[in-house]
Amino acid sequence: MNSVSKDQTPAKEKAADLPSDPRQFPKANRTVKDSVFRDLFSDKKYLLMLYQTLHPEDKDCTEDNLTCVTLKQVMLQDIHNDLGFRAGDKFLVMLEAQSRWSVNIIVRSLMYIVRTYQDYIKESGQSLFSTKPVHIPLPEIYVVYTGSKAIEKELITLSEDFFNGIQSALEVRVKVLTGSDGDDIISQYTAFTHIINKQIQTYGQNRRAVTEAIRICMERDILYEYLERRQKEVVDIMDMLFDQDEALRDYIISERREVAEKVAKETEERVARETKERVARETATTMYQDRQPIKKIAGYFRTDTETVEKWLGLVPQA
User: Fold this and answer.
1) CA 241 to chain centroid
2) What is the DSSP code (8-state) at residue 26?
3) Euclidean distance between CA atoms 61 and 54, whole angstroms
4) Cα–Cα distances in Å, from 100 out to 36, 38, 129, 145, 148?
5) pTM exceeding 0.90
6) Helix ranges, the chain (H)
7) pLDDT, tens digit (0-9, with 9 covering 90-100), for 102-145
8) What whole-number distance in Å separates Cα of residue 166 and Cα of residue 160?
């Protein structure tokens, strides 16, 4: 198995080179858009390790045989955790599911495949209106789950998870990867995310949590070379992610406050209307019992006689 560690220098010695004070890192780059997942595998060295983990039988594949086809971001503020690449005649889609697990990732991967095929057919100069079949690479879809929830399924499918097992004209099969205790690149990446999450639980969503996680990972020889070379970028990426999480929380709190204020106002107005109508009914009833004409009562309340008659129960309520 390929190692992501450095053979010459002990990890613990190099980890000591990290700043002890997170403030010593340069200010975060606010233009960062990729996730650590995508940043890691944008390097063909690690992309090859990823492919060899998935296809250990393919001994001949090299970095030159890999072509990245990851879709560009659609929303400028998105932090992306998806990856697409070709290896020979295979097309592999890798999606990362972080804290929240959802089978909707099957539909997401389907849309990813379709969009990528559209680009591939156009770029390769083929036409869907040709009489001969177009050439498209064989798709493989994976989801790397890095959350804490136990996922029992190793395979999720469109038919089983959306159509109650009924086979339709369309099928999508997604393999679920959760990593292991090994030193393959997927296991190292999932170990990295678990360490990050644990440090966030300890220190909160801040740079101290990230720098501490990097130090621990390097001591344990997890993604050592990548973190040694890209530690600032990793801090920037996580900082951007924290900003987005905070913005989302603020948005949710704001929305909840607005809803609560709206409900409170509507309730107050409803109670005021009901109270006003109840007092009007009671006053109208007293005036009627004192032999006041209905027309005079209506004039007193500046309403019509039909409304007064309804208050008094002289006509059926609508």
Assistant:
1) 11
2) P
3) 12
4) 17, 18, 41, 9, 9
5) no
6) 11-15, 36-41, 44-54, 105-123, 158-162, 185-203, 207-219, 224-289, 294-301, 305-312
7) 889 899 889 889 988 998 999 999 999 999 999 999 999 999 98
8) 7
